[in-house]
Structures are given as structure tokens and as C-alpha cells.
Amino acid sequence: MLAALSLKTRLPQLNVRVVYSREIGIIGVGEGSTADLPNHLHGFLGIDPGDFHHRARPTWKLGVHFEWGPRPSFDYTFTKTFVGTAPGLPRLLGYYAWDNCDSLDLNSALMREGKSFKRLPNGAPFLGRNIAYHMENADFVAALEHYAIQSGVLFTEGKVSEVQSGPDGITALILESGEKIAADLYIDASGFRSELLGLALGEKFESFDDALFCDRAVAGGWERTDEPVLPYTRAETMNAGWAWQIEHERHVNRGYVYSSSFISDEDADAEFRRKNSRVTKTRVVKFRSGHYPRSWVKNVVAIGNSGGFVEPLEATALFVISNACRALVYALADSEFEPAQTLRDCYNRVVARMWEEIRDFLAIHYRYNTRLNTPFWEHCRHNTALHGAEPIVRYYEENGPSNAFACDLLSPESSIFQLEGFYALLIGQKVPHGRVRPLTPTEEQTLADLRARNTNEARAGFGVADSLALIRGPLWRWTPGFYG
Q1: Confidence of residue 30 (pLDDT cuts 50, 70, 90)
Q2: How does 160-193 read in b/e, with b if 16+ C-beta sit within 10 Å?
Q3: Contact, 140 vs 35, CB < 8 A?
């Protein structure tokens, strides 16, 4: 849906058709995103935020609340918390966060207080652009289908029984009905099966199994009663992996991502239920972590799970999809719909780098989580390959959360997480570095004052339910061009 909508919205001269089957359905778990998704939906695609909130009914997400490592918990926001600065403190805030990394900026204080937005002097919520969505998948897909139809995308319901191919790629799809569908370009959105790129074209899949050991998830949830809607995704350390919690208005979505090499499906389900007594029905989802280094081969572009997948520890699936869609639009427009091989090669490198950085970032979550001493976590601490995160970790260990040579470590233009993300997980997990020192009394007082200001402002702010009720009300007006 996102690929079809992106192509038709930005390149309206294209004839775009979606072939799908409602019998196959969707993965019905809660979706979390990064702050890139609202900007893609409302900026790049121009979807009206008010209408989207009415149809998809998303809730707000300020970041991830980690029950991870030696601290009771820590928060990773979509703002510059650890590479930020504050008056009276000459170094980055990350240097002062060793003993306490709470409420260093307003968003981390909002998360701590369970609030979503600060309150402006006129009583309205301040909606920044560094905020993401939680959505129920079925509602999200239904909304995207509406916008796709509205934009002129054609839909053909049916199952593909045969894929015909030749020297230049796919030549036609044959449906069970006998209908033959031919196109110039095929978007493989067939999920884990990768029907076109992986099966029909035989492209080689690259596993991430030396860094990411989980391969299954047991998913469940419960209907919400009177508990508050929290403005973050919760990530909780479990015996053989971790559990997510995604907040919806009517439903709380929970799941346990685990390694089948260290726990059986039955024992994982039992551990999950011990922690979540309100869970009713559960189901197991199997997956493999990795990607196709070439996601655009001949006349096939794989987008979504057909091109790669990693567990939803940082909710990156929709980020990759949105960025791949934008890159494809730019490539087709720039080449006037005649993409050369060198352009496809560039596209493949860009998408591959996204997957590789996500792998490297997630590896830090596993390598340095000292919360539990179970066989799984002992294995992670000794065997998780860091790949491209290795130089970032070594720099941090010697220099602390410095950004003096940030450009040499990560590209500010293309990095997904930036140094902020890597430092948030390294500091949050209390990975030692060479610049830890006791704070002076002046620094302690400055930090105490900073935290108090952030906490007071957060406590006076809007909760998720209150802010959603306000923006859905008749008096709310979105600022034109808010998302660019």
C-alpha cells in the first residue's frame, strides 16, 4: 500500500495496480514507527493529518522505554538528549548522564511522566515533528487502501498461481482466475516469501544470524480498560529475548521475541503469560533476520519483508519501507522512467546500508545488556558481532559520548540513528567509557535544576488520551505545511 501510494502520488502519470488477496490477510500485530513515518505520510504523500487520525486512529510515540541493562530503566527518545547541551554545562549532556540519565530534555521528561506534549501558554498542546505513531495494523492498512484508491491506484483481488520470467526479469503474473498481468516494473510486496525477488529471480539472501539470534515471536494482548495510554513503546528483557508493549486506544499489544535455540515455543508462551496474566489468545510468528543486498534486480523491486527483516526492537520496518519508496520515486523521476544499471546499483547500496546500520544498532542492544545471566544473554554478550558498530563503540569507550569527529563515524546525512541513538543505548546500558568522572557540586546543581524544569513542564503537559481527544475535536486545525 505504501509503495503504490508513493508511486501514484508523486508520479501520477504511472499506471499503478495492486494485486492482493484478502484471504492471505496481514500480520495482525500492533505497529510502531519512528518519527520518519508521519513525515512520509503527511509530508511526502500529503495525507491530511486530521483525516488520517480519524481513519487510522494512531496514538503517539515519543520513543522506547527500555527495561534493559543494569539501570531499572532508561528512555531513548527521538530528540537529541545525549548529544544535546544545556546552559552552564560545557560538554554534551551524555557526559553527565552516567549515574542518572532521566529527564535530561523535555521529551525524556514527558516519557517519564507518561505525557505526550507540553502545554503552550494558550492551553494547546505543542506538537513537534520528533514524534512517531503506534497503530493497529488493520486500521493502518485500511486507511492506506482508502488513500491509494483515492489517488487512482487500481486493485485486483486474486492469488498468483504462476510467475513467468525471462532474461530481463518478470514477464507476467498468472492469477488463479487465469488472468495474465504484465507490467514494466514489479514491486515485490509478498512478505517473507519474497515470491518475485527471492523465489522467481533466485536472488541470494544474506542472514544477520551472527548478530541477531532471535527467530520467533509469540504475540498477544488484551483489551484496554482504565489504564492510561503510555506515550512510548516498552521493551522488556526476557529470559531468551525481549518483550514489546505497544499502546493503542482500545487494545494493548504485547509480544515476546525469542531465540528458538534457547527456548521452546511452549516455554516462551508460558514465560510470556507469567509476565502478562491478561493475555488471552497467542500465536507464534517465525522469521529470519537479514536482507537481500540487491533489492532492485532487473525489473523487480522488493519493498518490505520481501526485501529484508529484523525484529521490531527499534520499529524500523516502516522506516525502511518509507525510505525505499522515496528512493524509488526519486530514481524513476530522475531517470525519466529508464533507470540505468548504475542507478539501480546506487539504489541497492542505499537500501543495503539502511539494513546494515539497523543490524549494527540492534547488535549493541544485545552485546551489552547485562540485566540477566541466562544462557541466551550470556551467548549474546560473548558472540554478538558488532560489524559497523565496532568503530563507534571503540571511539565511545576511549572518548565518551563525544561528537568531535561525528562525520568520520557516521554520515549525518544518511545515518538512521545518528550518534544520539548509539550513545543512548551505550549510556543507557552503562557501557564504560574513559571520560566517566564524579560531577562537581556546581554540575550536580545545574543538572538538578535542569531536570526539575523539564519535569515540572512535563507534568503540566497533555496525556495521550487528552491530546488525541483535542486534535480530533471540531476546534482543532492543523497548521498548513506542518509536515513540509
Answers
A1: low
A2: beebebeeebbeebebeeeeeeeeebbbbbbeee
A3: no
Whether this prediction's pTM lies above 0.90 is answered by yes
Cβ-Cβ contacts under 8 Å for 133 (sequence gap 6 or more): 31, 32, 33, 37, 38, 56, 58, 59, 60, 61
- Between residues 257 and 482, which one has the greater pLDDT? 257
Look at 151-155, 241-245, 403-407 and tell me which has the smallest mean pLDDT: 403-407
- Residues 243-256 have pLDDT tens digits of 999 999 999 999 99
Is the pLDDT confidence value at 259 over 60? yes
Question: Would you give the DSSP letter of residue 191?
Answer: G
Residue appearing with cell numbers 492469477: 175
Amino acid letter at 175? L
3-state secondary structure 353-387: HHHHHHHHHHHHHHHCCCCCCCHHHHHHHHHCCCH
Cβ neighbours for 233, distance < 8 A, ≥ 6 positions apart: 32, 61, 63, 64, 65, 134, 244, 245, 246, 247, 315
Q: How are beta strands 283-286 and 216-223 bridged, if at all?
A: antiparallel
Angle between helices 317-334 and 2-10 (to 10 degrees): 30
Joined grid coordinates for residue 46: 500529503
